[in-house]
Protein backbone atom coordinates (compact mmCIF):
# COMPACT_ATOMS: atom_id res chain seq x y z
CA UNK A 1 0.00 0.00 0.00
CA UNK A 2 1.20 3.51 -0.79
CA UNK A 3 1.08 4.95 2.76
CA UNK A 4 2.26 8.32 1.61
CA UNK A 5 -0.59 8.82 -0.86
CA UNK A 6 -3.06 7.41 1.62
CA UNK A 7 -1.88 9.79 4.35
CA UNK A 8 -2.07 12.80 2.02
CA UNK A 9 -5.59 11.88 0.97
CA UNK A 10 -6.65 11.36 4.57
CA UNK A 11 -5.15 14.68 5.66
CA UNK A 12 -6.87 16.49 2.80
CA UNK A 13 -10.21 15.05 3.88
CA UNK A 14 -9.89 16.21 7.50
CA UNK A 15 -11.46 19.68 6.96
CA UNK A 16 -14.53 17.95 5.51
CA UNK A 17 -14.75 15.51 8.41
CA UNK A 18 -14.76 18.48 10.77
CA UNK A 19 -17.29 20.35 8.63
CA UNK A 20 -19.80 17.49 8.39
CA UNK A 21 -19.72 16.38 12.05
CA UNK A 22 -23.06 16.96 13.78
CA UNK A 23 -24.79 18.08 10.57
CA UNK A 24 -28.08 16.62 9.32
CA UNK A 25 -28.08 14.99 5.88
CA UNK A 26 -31.32 13.85 4.28
CA UNK A 27 -30.57 11.24 1.63
CA UNK A 28 -33.07 10.20 -1.02
CA UNK A 29 -32.51 6.63 -2.18
CA UNK A 30 -34.51 5.66 -5.29
CA UNK A 31 -35.62 2.07 -5.57
CA UNK A 32 -33.00 1.47 -8.30
CA UNK A 33 -30.26 2.31 -5.79
CA UNK A 34 -31.79 0.03 -3.14
CA UNK A 35 -31.75 -2.85 -5.60
CA UNK A 36 -28.36 -2.10 -7.07
CA UNK A 37 -25.42 -4.51 -6.73
CA UNK A 38 -23.52 -1.83 -4.85
CA UNK A 39 -26.12 -1.28 -2.13
CA UNK A 40 -23.96 -3.13 0.38
CA UNK A 41 -21.08 -0.71 -0.19
CA UNK A 42 -23.43 2.29 -0.15
CA UNK A 43 -24.69 1.21 3.27
CA UNK A 44 -21.09 0.77 4.47
CA UNK A 45 -20.41 4.36 3.39
CA UNK A 46 -23.54 5.58 5.16
CA UNK A 47 -22.44 3.68 8.27
CA UNK A 48 -19.05 5.39 8.00
CA UNK A 49 -20.77 8.79 7.84
CA UNK A 50 -22.66 7.81 10.99
CA UNK A 51 -19.44 6.96 12.78
CA UNK A 52 -18.03 10.35 11.70
CA UNK A 53 -20.94 12.07 13.44
CA UNK A 54 -23.25 12.84 10.51
CA UNK A 55 -26.94 12.64 11.42
CA UNK A 56 -28.87 10.90 8.65
CA UNK A 57 -32.44 10.53 7.52
CA UNK A 58 -32.66 8.04 4.67
CA UNK A 59 -35.74 8.43 2.54
CA UNK A 60 -36.42 5.21 0.68
CA UNK A 61 -38.41 5.12 -2.52
CA UNK A 62 -40.15 1.78 -2.55
CA UNK A 63 -43.13 0.27 -4.37
CA UNK A 64 -45.87 -0.17 -1.75
CA UNK A 65 -45.92 -3.97 -2.01
CA UNK A 66 -42.13 -4.15 -1.53
CA UNK A 67 -41.97 -1.56 1.24
CA UNK A 68 -41.61 -3.97 4.18
CA UNK A 69 -39.01 -6.15 2.47
CA UNK A 70 -36.88 -3.19 1.32
CA UNK A 71 -36.85 -1.71 4.84
CA UNK A 72 -35.97 -5.08 6.32
CA UNK A 73 -33.13 -5.52 3.80
CA UNK A 74 -31.68 -2.11 4.70
CA UNK A 75 -31.91 -2.83 8.40
CA UNK A 76 -30.08 -6.11 7.87
CA UNK A 77 -27.28 -4.37 5.98
CA UNK A 78 -26.89 -1.77 8.70
CA UNK A 79 -27.03 -4.47 11.37
CA UNK A 80 -23.75 -5.84 10.04
CA UNK A 81 -22.12 -2.65 11.26
CA UNK A 82 -18.80 -1.50 9.93
CA UNK A 83 -16.45 -4.26 8.95
CA UNK A 84 -12.84 -4.26 10.10
CA UNK A 85 -13.28 -1.83 12.93
CA UNK A 86 -14.23 -1.79 16.56
CA UNK A 87 -17.78 -1.26 15.26
CA UNK A 88 -17.72 -4.78 13.85
CA UNK A 89 -20.69 -6.73 15.12
CA UNK A 90 -22.00 -3.57 16.67
CA UNK A 91 -25.12 -2.65 14.78
CA UNK A 92 -25.58 0.89 13.60
CA UNK A 93 -28.80 1.97 15.27
CA UNK A 94 -31.47 2.37 12.63
CA UNK A 95 -35.03 3.30 13.41
CA UNK A 96 -37.86 3.02 10.94
CA UNK A 97 -40.23 5.93 10.99
CA UNK A 98 -43.28 6.33 8.83
CA UNK A 99 -43.89 9.61 7.12
CA UNK A 100 -47.26 9.87 5.49
CA UNK A 101 -46.84 12.34 2.74
CA UNK A 102 -49.95 14.27 1.89
CA UNK A 103 -50.86 16.04 -1.27
CA UNK A 104 -48.61 18.86 -0.09
CA UNK A 105 -45.87 19.20 -2.62
CA UNK A 106 -43.38 21.79 -3.74
CA UNK A 107 -46.10 22.86 -6.16
CA UNK A 108 -49.08 23.22 -3.83
CA UNK A 109 -49.80 23.46 -0.12
CA UNK A 110 -51.33 20.77 2.07
CA UNK A 111 -54.24 21.13 4.49
CA UNK A 112 -53.79 22.22 8.08
CA UNK A 113 -54.43 18.77 9.57
CA UNK A 114 -51.90 17.12 7.30
CA UNK A 115 -49.49 19.86 8.32
CA UNK A 116 -49.94 18.96 12.01
CA UNK A 117 -49.47 15.32 11.23
CA UNK A 118 -46.26 16.04 9.35
CA UNK A 119 -44.97 18.18 12.20
CA UNK A 120 -45.41 15.18 14.52
CA UNK A 121 -43.32 13.06 12.14
CA UNK A 122 -40.65 15.73 11.97
CA UNK A 123 -40.46 15.97 15.77
CA UNK A 124 -40.08 12.22 15.96
CA UNK A 125 -37.35 12.24 13.31
CA UNK A 126 -35.46 14.99 15.17
CA UNK A 127 -35.71 12.88 18.32
CA UNK A 128 -34.34 9.80 16.53
CA UNK A 129 -31.35 11.80 15.30
CA UNK A 130 -30.72 13.29 18.75
CA UNK A 131 -30.71 9.79 20.19
CA UNK A 132 -27.85 8.92 17.86
CA UNK A 133 -29.73 6.73 15.39
CA UNK A 134 -30.17 6.77 11.65
CA UNK A 135 -33.80 7.30 10.60
CA UNK A 136 -35.13 5.11 7.81
CA UNK A 137 -38.22 6.57 6.21
CA UNK A 138 -40.27 4.97 3.45
CA UNK A 139 -43.07 7.45 2.83
CA UNK A 140 -46.50 5.98 2.36
CA UNK A 141 -48.30 7.04 -0.76
CA UNK A 142 -51.35 9.21 -0.41
CA UNK A 143 -54.40 7.99 -2.31
CA UNK A 144 -54.84 11.38 -3.93
CA UNK A 145 -51.62 11.11 -5.85
CA UNK A 146 -51.28 7.35 -6.12
CA UNK A 147 -52.68 7.37 -9.61
CA UNK A 148 -50.08 9.62 -11.14
CA UNK A 149 -47.85 8.09 -13.76
CA UNK A 150 -44.79 8.67 -11.59
CA UNK A 151 -44.39 8.68 -7.85
CA UNK A 152 -44.00 12.24 -6.62
CA UNK A 153 -44.45 11.41 -2.98
CA UNK A 154 -40.95 10.47 -2.12
CA UNK A 155 -39.45 13.59 -3.75
CA UNK A 156 -41.74 15.95 -1.88
CA UNK A 157 -41.23 14.05 1.36
CA UNK A 158 -37.44 14.27 1.05
CA UNK A 159 -37.59 18.00 0.33
CA UNK A 160 -40.11 18.65 3.12
CA UNK A 161 -38.16 16.61 5.69
CA UNK A 162 -34.87 18.32 4.76
CA UNK A 163 -36.48 21.72 5.04
CA UNK A 164 -38.28 21.04 8.29
CA UNK A 165 -35.20 19.54 9.97
CA UNK A 166 -33.02 22.44 8.80
CA UNK A 167 -30.79 19.88 7.08
CA UNK A 168 -27.38 20.93 5.88
CA UNK A 169 -27.70 18.72 2.81
CA UNK A 170 -30.30 16.99 0.72
CA UNK A 171 -28.51 14.27 -1.23
CA UNK A 172 -30.21 12.50 -4.13
CA UNK A 173 -28.81 9.24 -5.46
CA UNK A 174 -29.37 9.40 -9.19
CA UNK A 175 -28.04 8.27 -12.55
CA UNK A 176 -26.33 10.06 -14.13
CA UNK A 177 -24.96 12.10 -11.24
CA UNK A 178 -24.28 15.08 -13.45
CA UNK A 179 -27.37 16.14 -15.32
CA UNK A 180 -25.77 17.74 -18.34
CA UNK A 181 -22.49 17.17 -20.04
CA UNK A 182 -21.99 20.36 -21.96
CA UNK A 183 -19.03 20.09 -24.33
CA UNK A 184 -17.59 17.48 -21.98
CA UNK A 185 -17.81 19.85 -19.04
CA UNK A 186 -19.38 18.13 -16.08
CA UNK A 187 -21.59 20.38 -14.00
CA UNK A 188 -19.98 19.69 -10.65
CA UNK A 189 -21.02 22.94 -9.01
CA UNK A 190 -24.23 24.76 -9.87
CA UNK A 191 -25.98 27.79 -8.43
CA UNK A 192 -29.69 27.39 -7.81
CA UNK A 193 -30.33 29.66 -10.83
CA UNK A 194 -28.12 27.56 -13.11
CA UNK A 195 -29.79 24.40 -11.80
CA UNK A 196 -33.23 25.85 -12.53
CA UNK A 197 -32.08 26.74 -16.01
CA UNK A 198 -31.09 23.11 -16.65
CA UNK A 199 -34.39 21.79 -15.28
CA UNK A 200 -36.34 24.16 -17.48
CA UNK A 201 -34.36 23.77 -20.68
CA UNK A 202 -33.00 20.23 -20.77
CA UNK A 203 -35.11 17.24 -21.60
CA UNK A 204 -34.75 15.37 -18.31
CA UNK A 205 -37.97 13.40 -18.53
CA UNK A 206 -41.00 14.12 -16.38
CA UNK A 207 -40.09 12.12 -13.29
CA UNK A 208 -36.48 13.33 -13.12
CA UNK A 209 -37.55 16.94 -13.70
CA UNK A 210 -40.06 16.62 -10.85
CA UNK A 211 -37.40 15.18 -8.53
CA UNK A 212 -34.93 17.90 -9.43
CA UNK A 213 -37.53 20.61 -8.89
CA UNK A 214 -38.12 19.25 -5.40
CA UNK A 215 -34.36 19.38 -4.77
CA UNK A 216 -34.20 22.95 -6.09
CA UNK A 217 -37.15 23.94 -3.92
CA UNK A 218 -35.46 22.52 -0.80
CA UNK A 219 -32.26 24.47 -1.59
CA UNK A 220 -34.21 27.68 -2.05
CA UNK A 221 -36.09 27.07 1.20
CA UNK A 222 -32.98 26.95 3.35
CA UNK A 223 -31.28 23.59 2.85
CA UNK A 224 -27.66 24.61 2.54
CA UNK A 225 -26.57 22.30 -0.28
CA UNK A 226 -28.18 19.89 -2.69
CA UNK A 227 -26.15 17.01 -4.11
CA UNK A 228 -26.78 14.58 -6.93
CA UNK A 229 -24.58 11.53 -6.44
CA UNK A 230 -24.14 8.34 -8.43
CA UNK A 231 -25.23 5.06 -6.88
CA UNK A 232 -23.47 3.12 -9.62
CA UNK A 233 -19.95 4.37 -9.01
CA UNK A 234 -18.44 2.77 -5.95
CA UNK A 235 -17.45 5.39 -3.36
CA UNK A 236 -19.11 8.30 -5.20
CA UNK A 237 -20.84 9.49 -2.02
CA UNK A 238 -17.58 9.63 -0.07
CA UNK A 239 -15.78 11.36 -2.95
CA UNK A 240 -18.54 13.96 -3.16
CA UNK A 241 -18.40 14.70 0.56
CA UNK A 242 -14.70 14.43 1.34
CA UNK A 243 -12.80 15.74 -1.69
CA UNK A 244 -12.44 19.24 -3.11
CA UNK A 245 -13.47 18.21 -6.61
CA UNK A 246 -16.41 16.02 -5.55
CA UNK A 247 -17.88 13.31 -7.77
CA UNK A 248 -21.37 14.46 -8.66
CA UNK A 249 -23.24 17.74 -8.85
CA UNK A 250 -23.48 20.17 -5.97
CA UNK A 251 -26.23 22.77 -5.92
CA UNK A 252 -25.36 25.74 -3.81
CA UNK A 253 -27.76 28.19 -2.30
CA UNK A 254 -27.77 31.85 -3.13
CA UNK A 255 -24.50 32.50 -1.38
CA UNK A 256 -22.95 31.03 -4.49
CA UNK A 257 -19.34 31.56 -5.35
CA UNK A 258 -17.85 31.11 -8.79
CA UNK A 259 -14.16 30.84 -9.53
CA UNK A 260 -13.05 31.56 -13.09
CA UNK A 261 -9.99 32.60 -15.03
CA UNK A 262 -9.45 36.35 -15.12
CA UNK A 263 -9.88 38.15 -18.44
CA UNK A 264 -8.77 41.53 -19.83
CA UNK A 265 -11.77 43.26 -18.34
CA UNK A 266 -10.85 42.19 -14.79
CA UNK A 267 -7.62 44.20 -14.38
CA UNK A 268 -9.20 47.09 -12.48
CA UNK A 269 -11.26 44.85 -10.23
CA UNK A 270 -8.23 42.74 -9.24
CA UNK A 271 -6.07 45.86 -8.82
CA UNK A 272 -8.68 47.32 -6.44
CA UNK A 273 -9.04 44.05 -4.55
CA UNK A 274 -5.30 43.98 -3.85
CA UNK A 275 -4.87 47.52 -2.55
CA UNK A 276 -5.73 47.00 1.15
CA UNK A 277 -3.39 44.05 1.49
CA UNK A 278 -0.62 45.86 -0.41
CA UNK A 279 -0.95 48.88 1.89
CA UNK A 280 -0.76 46.57 4.91
CA UNK A 281 2.29 44.79 3.44
CA UNK A 282 0.59 41.41 3.08
CA UNK A 283 0.96 41.39 -0.70
CA UNK A 284 3.76 42.51 -3.03
CA UNK A 285 2.88 45.79 -4.81
CA UNK A 286 2.02 45.49 -8.52
CA UNK A 287 1.45 48.15 -11.11
CA UNK A 288 -1.71 47.99 -13.20
CA UNK A 289 0.41 47.21 -16.29
CA UNK A 290 2.24 44.35 -14.62
CA UNK A 291 -1.04 42.94 -13.39
CA UNK A 292 -2.55 43.26 -16.84
CA UNK A 293 0.32 41.28 -18.40
CA UNK A 294 -0.09 38.58 -15.70
CA UNK A 295 -3.85 38.13 -16.05
CA UNK A 296 -3.66 34.68 -17.61
CA UNK A 297 -2.15 33.37 -14.37
CA UNK A 298 -4.99 34.65 -12.18
CA UNK A 299 -8.23 33.05 -11.00
CA UNK A 300 -10.96 35.34 -9.78
CA UNK A 301 -13.64 34.46 -7.21
CA UNK A 302 -16.99 36.19 -7.58
CA UNK A 303 -20.00 36.26 -5.34
CA UNK A 304 -23.12 37.21 -7.27
CA UNK A 305 -20.80 38.57 -9.98
CA UNK A 306 -18.93 40.74 -7.46
CA UNK A 307 -15.16 40.03 -7.25
CA UNK A 308 -14.34 38.80 -3.75
CA UNK A 309 -10.92 37.16 -4.06
CA UNK A 310 -8.16 36.00 -6.35
CA UNK A 311 -5.16 33.73 -6.63
CA UNK A 312 -2.32 33.48 -9.16
CA UNK A 313 -0.49 30.36 -10.30
CA UNK A 314 2.91 30.96 -11.86
CA UNK A 315 4.59 28.23 -13.88
CA UNK A 316 8.26 29.17 -13.89
CA UNK A 317 9.05 25.48 -13.66
CA UNK A 318 6.60 22.76 -14.63
CA UNK A 319 7.23 20.48 -11.67
CA UNK A 320 7.08 23.16 -9.01
CA UNK A 321 4.63 26.02 -9.46
CA UNK A 322 4.16 29.16 -7.42
CA UNK A 323 0.97 30.29 -5.71
CA UNK A 324 0.79 34.06 -5.32
CA UNK A 325 -1.53 37.03 -4.87
CA UNK A 326 -3.96 34.95 -2.83
CA UNK A 327 -6.52 37.07 -1.08
CA UNK A 328 -10.12 37.14 0.08
CA UNK A 329 -11.65 40.61 0.24
CA UNK A 330 -11.71 41.78 3.89
CA UNK A 331 -15.52 41.78 4.11
CA UNK A 332 -15.62 38.21 2.80
CA UNK A 333 -12.96 36.58 4.95
CA UNK A 334 -13.55 33.39 6.95
CA UNK A 335 -16.08 32.13 4.40
CA UNK A 336 -13.83 29.54 2.86
CA UNK A 337 -13.07 31.71 -0.18
CA UNK A 338 -9.30 31.59 0.41
CA UNK A 339 -9.42 27.80 0.83
CA UNK A 340 -11.47 27.33 -2.35
CA UNK A 341 -9.17 29.58 -4.36
CA UNK A 342 -6.15 27.70 -3.07
CA UNK A 343 -7.83 24.38 -3.95
CA UNK A 344 -8.53 25.67 -7.45
CA UNK A 345 -4.92 26.76 -7.97
CA UNK A 346 -3.65 23.38 -6.69
CA UNK A 347 -6.01 21.50 -9.02
CA UNK A 348 -4.72 23.60 -11.93
CA UNK A 349 -1.09 22.94 -10.91
CA UNK A 350 -1.80 19.19 -10.86
CA UNK A 351 -3.34 19.44 -14.32
CA UNK A 352 -0.20 21.17 -15.56
CA UNK A 353 1.87 18.26 -14.27
CA UNK A 354 3.31 19.84 -11.11
CA UNK A 355 4.28 17.64 -8.20
CA UNK A 356 4.74 20.59 -5.80
CA UNK A 357 3.43 24.09 -5.25
CA UNK A 358 5.12 26.79 -3.18
CA UNK A 359 4.25 30.18 -1.78
CA UNK A 360 6.10 33.09 -0.21
CA UNK A 361 4.10 34.66 2.60
CA UNK A 362 4.72 37.03 5.48
CA UNK A 363 1.45 36.95 7.39
CA UNK A 364 -0.37 33.78 6.44
CA UNK A 365 2.16 31.09 7.43
CA UNK A 366 -0.25 29.44 9.88
CA UNK A 367 -3.08 29.53 7.37
CA UNK A 368 -1.00 27.77 4.71
CA UNK A 369 0.29 25.29 7.30
CA UNK A 370 -3.32 24.31 7.95
CA UNK A 371 -3.49 23.47 4.24
CA UNK A 372 -0.45 21.15 4.50
CA UNK A 373 2.22 23.62 3.37
CA UNK A 374 5.54 23.09 5.11
CA UNK A 375 8.41 25.55 5.69
CA UNK A 376 11.32 24.90 3.34
CA UNK A 377 14.73 26.33 2.57
CA UNK A 378 15.38 28.39 -0.55
CA UNK A 379 17.65 25.61 -1.89
CA UNK A 380 14.49 23.56 -2.56
CA UNK A 381 13.41 25.97 -5.32
CA UNK A 382 14.17 25.62 -9.01
CA UNK A 383 16.85 28.08 -10.20
CA UNK A 384 14.41 30.20 -12.24
CA UNK A 385 12.14 30.61 -9.27
CA UNK A 386 15.00 31.56 -6.96
CA UNK A 387 15.93 34.38 -9.34
CA UNK A 388 12.58 36.09 -8.66
CA UNK A 389 12.85 35.84 -4.85
CA UNK A 390 12.90 39.23 -3.14
CA UNK A 391 15.43 38.75 -0.31
CA UNK A 392 14.60 42.15 1.21
CA UNK A 393 10.98 41.13 1.82
CA UNK A 394 11.91 38.36 4.23
CA UNK A 395 8.89 36.19 3.44
CA UNK A 396 8.67 32.58 4.52
CA UNK A 397 8.88 29.91 1.83
CA UNK A 398 6.32 27.13 2.20
CA UNK A 399 6.02 24.07 -0.05
CA UNK A 400 3.25 21.52 -0.50
CA UNK A 401 3.58 18.20 -2.20
CA UNK A 402 0.53 17.55 -4.37
CA UNK A 403 -1.12 14.18 -3.88
C1 LIG B 1 -5.17 34.22 4.01
C2 LIG B 1 -6.53 34.46 3.38
C3 LIG B 1 -6.42 34.33 1.88
C4 LIG B 1 -7.51 33.41 3.91
O1 LIG B 1 -8.74 33.53 3.22
P1 LIG B 1 -10.15 33.27 3.95
O2 LIG B 1 -11.16 33.10 2.89
O3 LIG B 1 -10.41 34.32 4.96
O4 LIG B 1 -9.84 31.91 4.70
P2 LIG B 1 -10.80 30.63 4.93
O5 LIG B 1 -12.20 31.09 5.13
O6 LIG B 1 -10.54 29.64 3.88
O7 LIG B 1 -10.19 30.10 6.31
C5 LIG B 1 -10.56 30.77 7.48
C6 LIG B 1 -9.77 30.23 8.67
O8 LIG B 1 -8.40 30.60 8.54
C7 LIG B 1 -8.02 31.44 9.64
N1 LIG B 1 -7.14 32.47 9.10
C8 LIG B 1 -7.44 33.45 8.23
N2 LIG B 1 -6.33 34.18 7.96
C9 LIG B 1 -5.32 33.63 8.66
C10 LIG B 1 -3.93 33.92 8.79
N3 LIG B 1 -3.37 34.95 8.16
N4 LIG B 1 -3.18 33.10 9.59
C11 LIG B 1 -3.76 32.06 10.25
N5 LIG B 1 -5.06 31.73 10.17
C12 LIG B 1 -5.84 32.52 9.39
C13 LIG B 1 -9.35 32.04 10.13
O9 LIG B 1 -9.25 32.44 11.49
C14 LIG B 1 -10.29 30.85 9.96
O10 LIG B 1 -10.08 29.92 11.00
P3 LIG B 1 -11.30 28.95 11.54
O11 LIG B 1 -11.71 28.08 10.37
O12 LIG B 1 -10.67 28.16 12.64
O13 LIG B 1 -12.38 29.87 11.97
C15 LIG B 1 -7.14 35.84 3.78
O14 LIG B 1 -7.09 35.97 5.17
C16 LIG B 1 -6.42 37.02 3.13
O15 LIG B 1 -6.82 37.47 2.09
N6 LIG B 1 -5.35 37.54 3.80
C17 LIG B 1 -4.64 38.71 3.27
C18 LIG B 1 -3.77 38.41 2.09
C19 LIG B 1 -2.73 37.35 2.40
O16 LIG B 1 -2.08 37.37 3.44
N7 LIG B 1 -2.55 36.43 1.45
C20 LIG B 1 -1.55 35.39 1.54
C21 LIG B 1 -0.31 35.86 0.85
S1 LIG B 1 0.03 34.89 -0.57
List the helices and strands and how they pair.
Elements: H1 3-20, E1 24-29, H2 31-34, H3 39-51, E2 55-60, H4 67-79, E3 94-97, H5 112-130, E4 134-137, H6 143-146, H7 153-165, E5 169-173, E6 181-182, E7 185-186, E8 189-191, H8 192-201, H9 206-220, E9 225-229, H10 236-242, E10 249-252, E11 257-261, H11 267-279, H12 288-293, E12 298-303, E13 306-314, E14 320-328, H13 337-351, E15 356-361, H14 365-370, E16 374-375, H15 383-387, E17 396-401
Parallel strand pairs: 1-2, 1-5, 2-4, 3-4, 5-9, 8-10, 14-15
Antiparallel strand pairs: 6-7, 9-10, 11-12, 12-13, 13-14, 15-17, 16-17
Helix pairs in contact: 7-9, 8-9
The chain binds coenzyme A (COA).
Task: Tell me what you see in this structure.
With 403 residues, the chain is of the alpha/beta class. The protein folds into two domains: 252 residues, Acetylglutamate kinase-like (Carbamate kinase); 144 residues, 3-Layer(aba) Sandwich (Aminopeptidase). Helix content is 40%, strand content 21%. The protein contains 15 helices and 17 strands. The strands form three sheets. It has an eight-stranded mixed sheet, with helices on both faces. It has a seven-stranded mixed sheet with strand order 11-12-13-14-15-17-16, with helices on both faces. A two-stranded antiparallel ribbon has the order 6-7. Helix 8 packs antiparallel against helix 9. The longest helix is centred in the first third of the chain and has 19 residues. About 2% of the residues have low confidence. The site of coenzyme A has 20 residues, from strand 14, helix 13, strand 15 and helix 14.
Amino acid sequence: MDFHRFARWFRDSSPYIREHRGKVFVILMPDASLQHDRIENIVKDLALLHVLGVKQVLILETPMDERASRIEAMKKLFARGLPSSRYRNQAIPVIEETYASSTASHQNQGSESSHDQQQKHINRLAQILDEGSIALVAPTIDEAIRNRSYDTTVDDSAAAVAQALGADKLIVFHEPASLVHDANVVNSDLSTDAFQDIIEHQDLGEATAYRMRALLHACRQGVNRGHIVSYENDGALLAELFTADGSGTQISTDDYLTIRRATDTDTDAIFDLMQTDIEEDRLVPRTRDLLSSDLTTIFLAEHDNVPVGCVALYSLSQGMQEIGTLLAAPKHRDRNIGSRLLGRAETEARKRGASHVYVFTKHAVDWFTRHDYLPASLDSLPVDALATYDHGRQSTLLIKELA
